[in-house]
Amino acid sequence: MSIENFVHLLSSMYTTQDNETRQMYTLELLKAEDRLNQEELRDIGVGLLSNSAYGLAIQAYGAVLLRRAIESGRIRASSLPYNELITWYLEERTLSRLVCSDIVDLITECMVHEWPERCSNLMEQICPSFAQLAHHPRKVSLLSSLVTRCTEPHAFKVPVDRMKKLMDAIKVHSRAILIEVIQALFDIYTAAGGADNCAPSPGTEETISGCLLIIGSVAPLIPLKHWEALGISSTLKALLKWRAVARDTMSSLIVILRCDRLSRPQSPPEEAMQSTVTSVTHTIWLELLNAALCSTEWWLAERNYSILEEITELVLEAPGTVINSVTPLLSQVCLHILSLPSIYLASSACSILRRLGDAVFTHINPADLMTRMALLVPKNKFHLKLGTDREGMLLSEQQYGSIDAFEQGFAEFRSLAGQLLSAAARIYPVVSNQFVLQLIAALCDADGTAEDPRTNLGFVTQQSPTFIAWEATQFLVTSLSESFRHSSEYLPYVINELASKQPSDMVIYPVYLNLVSLLWNCRDATALGVWEGTVNIIINSLMCRPKNFGDIDVMSARKRAITLLVTACTNHAEKLKNLSAGFIQQLERVLMLPFTVPQERILLYEAMAAFTKVLPVDEAEQRLQTFLQPIASILAERVRGMDQQIFNDMIIASTKSHYELRDLVCDSLNIMAGVLRHCNTSSCVTEILTGVMPFIVQLVDFAHSMHVGGLPFPYCNIDEMSSAERQQLLPNGSRRNMGSNQKKCPLQRARGALMSLRTALYQLVGSLSVFFPRENVRNMLDILATVIHTLSVNVVRHLVSQCLLPIAKANEALVEVVLPACTAFYKHRAQHRTQRPEDEVIENKQIFHLSKEIFTFIRLEVLNLKRLDGNVRFTQSVLDLLLSTLRCGVNVGEATRLITTTLTSCMDDATLNATDRSIMLETAVHAYGCMLDFVVGADDDKLPPRQREQLASSLADMYLTSYPLYAPSIRARYQQERVEELNAHLAISARMDTKRRRFREFILQKTGDTVDTRLSACS
Fold first, then answer.
1. Given this model, what pLDDT does residue 610 score?
2. 90 domain residue, yes or no
3. Are residues 699 and 814 in the same domain?
4. Which InterPro entries match (predicted)?
5. Per-residue DSSP letters for 85-100?
6. Does 752 share its domain with 808?
């Protein structure tokens, strides 16, 4: 193609106004470029670049064409006259800025391939001694481009074999470059009249930016000990005070502080030299960070959030010694940042203040901190969609990008803010109490305003401004209530204000009760009448007949009141002793009210049982017998003579009498379970439980012997989860899908009753291990162990967490029953997969959470307590459980880590005799073999490729660190020659990642011809 035709294409592309036509010419141009050979590319490119008659855009395209050809390897940089090009660029004054910019890119691309082996005089041309770069902006532009490419090489822009050569070449000239660049900045600074001048001299802005970019790129190449002599820190500090160039200076400063020499200094081994390097690093950090912090006043005034983000992130990365040295200034900066409507910056500021520790409160006014926090903590104020602060909403959109990210960030901010406020309250309790009084006094009317969205009964919703204000106050007072333990100043006024704010709105009422309960932390709570007053408020709220009894908000408010009573009796019973007789009578009165629902009665019994712990023994036994014996008698009377069919009819409530029987039995079990959770062991309780034990065993048997054939057709799937519960466990599911206000069908009620009865039985059996020897509990455990594999996953979760694990914690001897029961469930689960993908997701999620509970038990109650030492049988039981969990394909990573830890612990056990050690060796080899078979034979649904590689890497680590312990497992599964080849590769490989890769390739390339049978054998 001739240059004239190429110019015609370019001209057509640039001059057309129609987008489709421009796109057509662009594609045609690219195709024409692809057809050009090496000589045509060079000739056309040089021809366009050397002739300005075609227009500036076309002239500049000549440089672009040549640069792209060099990048793609279509022409060699050595084929271009780059020396003449450099001279022309530096001396030809008529070149436009557009052409100069593209020429700089072209020269830089040439130098990446040619310098320093050729064009060795490059630095003499663009950066000689006494270069006076302030008067040569083109030299600065070229130098900046070259330095950036050479010091931050990118694999796709710089050939890998050139990276080190270019970096070394820049290092050779780095000192000279910095001297000339800093001198240029000084000349421009002086010519402009110093930092007091508003703007630099015309035409020097790009030179300043280029020089600062060069400093940021080259300074990290210089040893720290030379920085002071070169004036790097002092230059940046001076320019940072010059507001017109402060942004570029700050960018350069941040780049320098994040360089490896400062963030990860390579200290020499000698102690004296190491101390010197550390001291120099500290000094540089301190100087530059202090300068950056001093400039924040400008950025705050300008609302320059991006630079403020950079500064806060820089502070979080800074060494602790530096941070502690600038505590006064940094504290004030963080306090100013907290005045901005940005949750992201506020979270960073709180993180910094937390890092500074209590010393920060000597430099800031705690009342100012509390006031600024109060403006930031209301929910949804800065929400991306629901916010009320326009600027804050825009910042949230910019800084978080999505609602999920914002909500997570807001939760983190609240956590940090709460910690800071608690620390401030501890150090300044009087100030905190005064601020709490101001918060309570400023609370808006709980009845809300006409603008508040409301529920069907007229209560404000949780999205209303009124509720948000109350909830924010609750958060603040909760965080500041630490001061109540240290001072009683202003608290009488706080109590009076709270008493006057008692709401009638049932959505607000739980928040009010939470505020009231915070007074229990008061140092002088008894003297201030807190206990009597708060208990009366709670009791009175329960004694008022609800106007709309079935409303969820009304019931939630009542439930919160009763749970606070349980908390008070459990954690503060000693403080309630003065109310003894009257308090119990009040609870009994609430208990007898006709509108107290069964769930509330259960909690009231729990409160009374917890309160008996502080009573004299005789009085406690008398009261326990008073309310526990009748419940036990009712249960025994109803269960005596019951058979499986009656139990089935009771669960499905086929008649009104069965319905009443179901409620009575469920309530009795729940009450007994609640009482046993909170009361002390005593002969009275043991005697009552002994009498009712046979009936509990009978109910356990009935509850797990319901068969489909013995139930009417509509109840055949009574053991399955409801659709609402299933929906919660699906992706994006939540409790909002539960439909609490929807009327339940008979199947749902029967399903809920059976689950409630089973849960109560599990809690009851779990509590019995405290009152009875293991033989008495063993019978019920045997029943549960035989049926656990037949139960649905959601039932097993309740059984394991509320019954089996509590029993195992309370009675070490019963662990040998509990762990095999869990193993049986996991083995059954591994062999029986659900058919529908939706069911698989739901069950896997539940099994994952169940495995976490079991793993936590094994870690805390078995491994940490060294209960495996010397006990081979117990060790085998634990490994069997962990391997069966692994084969389910859920929580593979944690299962692998626990198996590894268990095997390591057992092999290091010095208490084993020779016979036991031999058995343990066989057990370890067997366990490793089962893991090998699983990683090779499991399908992708159970073990996705990424998890498969991670497990294979873990097996490689085990194989290498314990060699030759697990070698028999490998030899039993692979040909001897291949195993020897693998061992040779592992021996000669120096890098651990290479060893892992070799091992992964070895085991994962094997065909799974016998894997299925081995998996069955391991099972």
1. 92
2. yes
3. yes
4. ARM-like, ARM-type_fold
5. HHHHHHH-TT--HHHH
6. yes
| Tokens linked to 161 | 């074999």
Domain boundary among 88, 120, 152: 120
Question: 77 is in which domain, residue-wise?
Answer: 1-120
pLDDT tens-digit profile of 569-600?
999 888 888 776 688 888 889 999 988 898 99
Contact present, 713 and 707 (Cβ < 8 Å)? no
Kindly state whether residues 756 and 810 are assigned to the same domain: yes
SS3 content of the chain, % helix, strand, coil (to 5): 75, 0, 25
pLDDT above 90: residue 377: yes
Share of the chain above pLDDT 90, in %: 27
Bridge partner residues of 460 (DSSP): 454
- Distance separating alpha carbons of residues 920 and 908, to the nearest angstrom: 11
Coil, strand, or helix at residue 203? coil
- Domain membership flag for residue 206: no
Q: Does the pLDDT of residue 1015 top 50, yes or no?
A: no
pTM of the predicted structure, to 2 decimals: 0.78
Backbone angles phi, psi at 454, to 5 degrees: -135, 160
* HSE, side-chain direction, 13 A CA sphere, residue 482: 15
CB 455, CB 553: distance < 8 Å: yes
Can you read off the two tokens belonging to residue 747?
């199947």
Q: What is the C-alpha separation between 281 and 287, in angstroms, rounded?
A: 10
Closest among 84, 83, 6, 70 to 38, alpha carbons compared: 70
Asked if 682 and 767 sit in the same domain, the reply is: yes
Q: Residue 454 pairs with which residues in a beta bridge?
A: 460
Q: How many domains does the chain have?
A: 3
CA atoms of 678 and 767, how far apart (whole Å): 10
599 touches 542 (CB < 8 A): no
> What is the token pair recorded at 925?
């080899």
Do 815 and 941 belong to one domain? no
Rounded Cα distance, 893 and 835, in Å: 25
Position 579 scores a pLDDT of 74
Q: Which of 747, 781, 764 is nearest to 667 (CA)?
A: 764
pLDDT band at 567 (very low <50, low <70, confident <90, very high): very high
Distance, CA of 244 to CA of 241 (rounded, Å): 9
Q: Which residues contact 1015 (CB under 8 A, 6 or more apart)?
A: 887, 930, 933, 934, 937
Question: Beta-strand (E) ranges in 236-381?
Answer: none
883 with 803, same domain? no
DSSP string of 463-517?
Answer: TSHHHHHHHHHHHHHHHHGGGGGT--TTHHHHHHHHHHT----TTTHHHHHHHHH
Quick: pLDDT tens for 163-178: 778 888 888 888 889 9
DSSP state of 454: B
Peptide bond into 503 cis (omega under 30): no
In a domain, 209, yes or no: no
Quick check: 922 and 990 in contact, CB under 8 A? no
Is 830 in the same domain as 968?
A: no
**Residue 1012 structure tokens:** 């299925």
Residues 6+ apart with CB under 8 A from 356: 323, 324, 327, 330, 331
On the question of pLDDT at 198 being above 50, the answer is yes
d(CA 244, CA 656): 85
Which among 334, 327, 406 has a CA at the least distance from the CA of 372? 334
Could you give the C-alpha distances from 462 to 27, 84, 445, 459, in angstroms and in order?
57, 74, 15, 9
Nearest to 394 by CA among 472, 468, 305, 464: 305
Residue with tokens 């060790």: 875
Torsions phi, psi for 788 (to 5 deg): -60, -35
- Residue 275, in any domain of the structure: no
Same domain, 731 and 802: yes
The mean-pLDDT minimum among 50-64, 864-878, 943-957, 994-1008 falls in: 994-1008
Domain boundary among 834, 866, 887: 834
Report how far residue 566's alpha carbon sits from residue 423's, in angstroms, rounded to the nearest whole number.
28
